[in-house]
Each structure stands twice: as C-alpha cells, then as structure tokens.
Amino acid sequence: MGKHKRNKEVPAGIASGKLALVLAILVIVNLYVFLWRDKTSIPAVAKKAAIGTVDLDSSSPRQLITEPTQAPKLLLTDGIVENGDSMGRILEREGLSQTEQTALLQGIREHLDFRKIRPGQKYQIGRDESGIAREFTFVVNKLNTVTAVRKGDDWSPQKDTVVPDLEVTELAGKINYSLYRSMQELEEDTSLIPLLVDMFDYDVNFYTDQHPGDEFRIIVEKKLVDGEFLSYGRIIAAEFKGKVGTFRAYSWQVPGQQKYRYFTEDGKSIETNMLRTPLKYTRISSKFNRKRMHPVLHKVRAHWGVDYAAPTGTPIRAAASGKVIKKGWCGGGGNCVKISHAGGLTTVYFHLSKHNKGIKQGGRVSQKEVIGYVGMTGTATGPHLHFEVHKNGKRIDPLRMKMTRAAGIPDKHLATFQEFASPLQAKLSKLEPQN
Fold first, then answer.
1. Pairing of strands 394-396, 322-329
2. Which CATH topology does 283-400 take?
3. β 364-365/122-127 pair status
4. What confidence tens digit (pLDDT) does each residue in 175-189 have?
5. Nearest one of 176, 184, 248, 172 to 210, comparing CA atoms
6. Mind listing the pLDDT tens digit for each residue in 212-228?
7. What is the reported pTM?
C-alpha cells in the first residue's frame, strides 16, 4: 500500500484565539488613528474645525478658512462747486454738522488749498445706511483727486495724482487772418499760441509783425489723460517764417544746467538781455522824442520813453531779470515800477492801474514776470504804458537799443546738440502748412 500524507487538524480553540488577536490589533490601530493621534484623531479634527483651521497636508502651511469681510455699502452723492462756494458752504449744504465739517476740513487741508476751489469742480460724498458721511472725494483737476475716509471722529486723507501720457505732435499752418484763427483751423487748442509767442518774442513782435502768408511749423509735446487732451508740454522745435525773417529754435538742456533753453541750429541762444516789448499793445501812441509837445501840459517837453497804448488791465512783464528798486507812486507817472538790471541798465514802467501783489520793493524779478497792469494813473489821457530804458543813468531810446544774446551752447557740447537738432530741422522742413 502506498503512503498517504495526513492533514493535521488545528484545534478550534487555537484558531479562535488567533482571530481574536487580529481583531484586537485592528481595534487598537483604529483607536490610535481616530482618538489618540494628534493630526487625525476625531478630537483633534473637531478642535481645529472649531477654530477655523484644517491641515489639508501636514507638509503645507496652516490655511485659514474665514468668511470674506465686506465693506459696508455707501450711498454716493455727486456734487459740483457753485459760484461763491467755499468748502464750509459745500459741506453745510450737504448736511454735515459743524463738528463733522471741522474734522473733515482739518483732515484734508494739507492736500487741498481751499482758496483755489472754483465753480465747476466736482466732489462726491459717501454715506452709510444711517446717513452718516464716511467718505469725501474732491476732484481738483484731471490729474489730482483728494479722498478722505472717516475713521471714528477723524478723517484720513489721500491725494491721488495721475501721470499724464506724452505724445509728440507735428503741425504746420499759414496765417491768413490771424495766428489765433489759423490755430483753430488746425483744430489745435489755442493755448499753444502763447507758448509759440513766448518762444520767439525776443525777435518777433507778434502783435505788429505777423502778416497774411506768414508760416509756422511746430513739434510739440501733448499731455493726455485716458486719451483726452489735457495741455501742451514743451515745444521741442519750431519755426516762424514771415516778412520779418525766418526764425528757428530747438529746446535743449545744456549738461549741468537745470532747465531747457532754446537755441538756434548753430547753438546760439535765442534769448536777449531785454524784451523788445514788455506787453501786448494795440499801438505805439508816442515814441522817444526830445522835443515832443506834451498832450496834457501843451508845451514842448522831452518824452524819454515809448508809450504803448493798450486796454486797462493788460499784463506788463519785466523786460529783463533784475532787482525792484521802486514800487509805488511816481507823481505824474502814477503807479510805477523801476527795475535795476545787469550791465548798468534800468527799466521804468509808468501809469500802472495796479501792481502785481507778488512784486516787492527790494526783491528780484525774472524776465517776463508780470509786474503790473496797464492803466492811466498819474498824468495820462488814456490807458497806456510809458516805458523807459536808462543806460548808466542816461535815458536811451528803447526802440533803437541794441540787444545782446545770452550765452549759447559751450563748444564742448555743440556737436552733441547739433546731432540732436539736425533731424528736427529736417522734420520741420518737410512739414507743409495745412491751411
């Protein structure tokens, strides 16, 4: 007979014991995971949930789960500055109490000059559901806005300033009737005119020297906000061509100097030591004359200056930079200003209706700075400026005075300047008048 293997039977008691041991191990593991382990136990998870945090990954930083805080909605009211308004009147009209007005004005006074608010400026007030003012915004201009937010009884101010975009524009026109009308026909803002006049008025008297057929060419910066024109910046280059001659100038900052100045293509300054005319006048009513018949006294009396007839209130500019040696009353000269300049020159301005408040006797003025306004104070038959020039104490004829140029570009910088000006000169030459 063959041999057969016999299966050994495991006693039932032993099998049951092993099963019980396995179950016990599983129970202990579950108790550790769900009750005792720091990270995953039910108490630990419940505790974390109670404080609003859950570790999604033990290697990740703790993440805070909170509901977003929403700022209370404000009811916004728009307003506009009216004639005669002050900041106090505006806030009173909007229903702010005297205490609220004082606190708000105190908060924004460093960012907003209350004396310079003007009709048409816009503002906005934000109120909460109970009607209490919480936010105030004032639009100073297209570039500047002042906003104040209420914090308790105080107001926290902030001034926002927009930096305008710069765009370079090239234009050319012909004077058919007037420079003003020509600029309108080109659909350019007429604020460009005084920039052009101020640039060339050392050589061109635009009030008497412009004629039909004269041409101008300009390369100028425009300041834009959101694509909307704000103002002109610097005239980069320009040309005026007329009966009085052809004049070109280029804006350039000499290294080491603080401001841009205008120079011809060969590097000479367009500035002169004296303006040809210190105001915009209607006509010359009387010239320098040693034997003139005085219109009021009716006797021969020397006329030591030039009389420029102009409407009362026309601004009068300093013919050159210097020191104010007289501001006051000059007998028959009425309200007057006398300025001492370099090179032994003195200029005299008679018959002013009033002085510029910023001008002080003993103080200094810059060339082209407004010193007063045309009038007919003293001995005068009509509004005009009597203008005199003295050279080392001797009166000279302003209309025949030889002007001297300011310093040009130093030789060491001349090549750099001409490299800058040459392409601009080519651009000006290619511009064709559009009217």
1. unpaired
2. Glucose Permease (Domain IIA) (2.70.70)
3. unpaired
4. 998 899 999 999 999
5. 176
6. 999 999 999 999 998 99
7. 0.68
